[in-house]
Amino acid sequence: MSVDLLWLGLLHISLSALWQVADTQAAFTIDQVTLTVLPGNDVASGTNVILRCEAKVSHSHPQPLTYTFSFLQDDQVMYSKNISDSVVERGLSPARVSNSGRYQCTVRVFDKIKTSYSQALRVTGLQVPMLKVKSDIVSEGDDITATCIAPEETGSLIFLFYENNQEVKRVSSAANSVTTTLAMQKLADIYLHCNYMVLMHPTAGISNKSNTVKVIIRDLDEITPQIRIFSEVNVVEGDRVQIQCKVQNHSGLELFLTKGNTVLYKLHTTFTHSLTVRAEDSGEYVCKAEKGSVQKTAMYRLNVAELFSKPILRMSPGQVFEGERFTLTCSSAVSSLEKIKKVDIKYVLLKEDQRIYSGANYSATASPATNGKYSCMAVAKGVNKTSQPLHSKAKVPVSYPVIRAVEKVIVGQPFKVSCEAENGTLPITYTLLKDHVSVDEKRAEAAHKALFSINSISHPEEIYRFTCQAHNQGPSIKKNSQSLRTDVIVPVSKPVLEPQDFTITEGLDLTLICTVQKGTFPITYTWYHKSAPISFSTQEVRSLEGRYTVKAIERHQRGDYYCEASNYDTEIKRSFSARIGVSLAVWKKVLIGVFCILLLVAIAIVLTVFLKKMSKPRIKKQATELSVKASRPKSGDPMRMSLTLDIEDNTALNGTPCVMGRNVWSEHVSGSDSDDHTDEDSELVQPQEADPSREVSVKKSIEPEYSGQHTEVQVSTPGVSEQAEGQAALEYAQLNNSEQEPA
């Protein structure tokens, strides 16, 4: 049987799946969804409103479609329904203000959804609420229980409660009614009413007020207490006083006895409180009965006279130094002589609230052990009073101060010193002394030292003339320090650089010495060349003299040098510049000399070769024999023959006069000498044949004279020239005569 049911279930599921597949394969479209509000969009509260949603769908499905309708109010779904009809309605009966809003209708067919246009529904008018109270007669202090109802109203509401037309409370509720408790504002009859407003639609306003309910407040006079004090007429410290607090109705109340903010006693019924009074017990006592929020009080003022005054503790002397004696005295005045006498008052001395001495006077020697908080207690007839505390601390006498320099001391510059006493109670007065004369004074309130400024000192030994003094009114009065001892820095003087204006040979070592006359060691020296610091030249030495050596100086290292000196970050002093010259090395000078000599020798050789080449043609011309030729006769022109002798003095070469000469016969024609000279030159280059007999005769006549002339004529000095000219003229005349003889 179970197997058959299983097969039937599987068959049903298969058919349903096939049907759904057929449905999904059918064609359809949602044409339109329309939402209608009936009877209209604006209605009064209580009207029956119908929301009508209609869907128009085009489809090819043979069976009716299933529609899913959803109604939305302000985008929140308020109602949904699955139906095969294309129209569905939703009623709001009756419509209230909470139904106001914008509505839409959504239709879903299979996987397609379409939404209508929104429609606004405005419902106006609120219901008149109704107020009820649990009891209209309440006792003073009791709460009033009230309920406000808004019949047939829907939605979240805010209820407002009023006492005598004054709003006293607001309560929110999701229902159309609320119950709350109200506290009475004053002891009188109260008139209550309420109203409400819709939380989600505040623009709808507040409803009309409800009915008014009168609440009668009943006064609780039966719980009003009474207070009484049983004592003598004049109450004095030490008297026993009884205070009674009484009430008629004890039901559900609490009874308190208070003074100021202090509760002295508490009970739920009438009671009596007893105490031994003191002067500070004077004041107002209150008996208070409390039931719920209702309080009733009764008050009584008690005055207590002093038996004796509050003791006063004094120390003498007021300020005490360690090692000095001091006395503590406790005293009190009798206020009620009829009760006690002065001798009846006993005193106890307390230190740190511990009893240390019985009596009015206490003496001790001040020390660190006696420092602390003291007080005294006066006791009489069971009354004890304690004085105000007295804090005692023995002052410490000032110790010998120590004077120190707090910064570098540099001659000629201001500096600061401190004067400090290691021990001593503040305030301490410090005085700076120079040669035991006060220079400055300062009072130290918060520290054990004082700082003084000193303008300057002119020399190191002046530092020992400063001392300081300290005092704090102690028994030893004033204490003086030792003399100030500290290192004094003497700034360096203006340095001097040596050598000055010195010339050194290239390649040698140059030692620059920078010297100062004074200055505290160590001193830092730096050398500069042409205003630039020399690399690795800075040195710190414990000497008044610094040395820097320029190894194997070169020509480019000549120029101006200077040095700077300083110590301990004082002012840097600079020397005057020294000009250092660098001459050439000896081997360079020798090389230049050799080069010059070789250059001169080369020039001499060139000149000698040149002169020899120039003298060879002249020697050849001088060796040529004198040639004589006859000028061609010209009509009217006399024939003229000239002899030219060239004489060269070769004495410088061989020491023997040497005469080289040549005879040149020239024929001068009156007229253009230049033309004749040209012709003669051409004739000398290409001589014509002469008559042999004529030539022979000429040679014979010339040879003797030429031979004589050759040995006699030597021109090397000025005065001989005239003789040479005369001799030449004589030779010319002899030659001319010898030529004319054959004619």
List keywords for this structure.
743 residues, six-stranded mixed beta sheet, 53 strands, disordered C terminus, glycoprotein, disulfide bond, transmembrane
Distinct helical segment count: 6
Show unreliable segments: 625-743
The number of E-state strands comes to 53
Helical/strand content category: alpha+beta
Radius of gyration based on Cα positions: 75 Å
Determine the fraction of residues in helical runs and give it as a percent range. Answer: 10-25%
Strand content: 35-45%
Largest beta-sheet details = 7 strands, mixed
Distance between the termini: 201 Å
Mean pLDDT: 80
User: What would you call the shape?
Assistant: flat
Describe it:
This protein is α+β, with helices and mostly antiparallel strands and 743 residues long. Helix content is 16%, strand content 41%. The strands form 14 sheets. Strands 45, 47, 48, 49, 51, 52 and 53 form a seven-stranded mixed sheet that branches.
